[in-house]
Design goal:
Number of helices: 1
Strand content: 25-35%
Structural class: alpha+beta
Strand order of the largest sheet: 1-3-2
Helix content: 10-25%
Oligomer: single chain
Order of helices and strands: EHEE
Largest sheet: 3 strands, antiparallel
């Protein structure tokens, strides 16, 4: 890697219907929102939220010890 090259940053994307939902996800899951991009390929999920790192939604259906 040359001096001017930066290591590739790992990102995740999640598509939403409205831009404000990106910031709502950022707050709810404590993810770092890098940017919001227009999704040209989907007329329903019009926006892509780009987050820093690998992001996954919690599995609310996961069994607990109480089950």
């Amino acid at each position: 890697m040359s001096e001017n090259q930066q290591p590739e940053q790992v990102t995740s994307s999640h598509s939403v219907t409205e831009r404000w939902r990106c910031t709502a996800m950022e707050k709810k899951y404590s993810w770092k929102l890098l940017r919001i991009e227009r999704n040209q390929n989907n007329s329903v999920l019009k926006w892509d939220c780009i987050f820093k790192g690998k992001t996954e939604f919690p599995d609310y259906m996961e069994e607990t010890e109480e089950d």
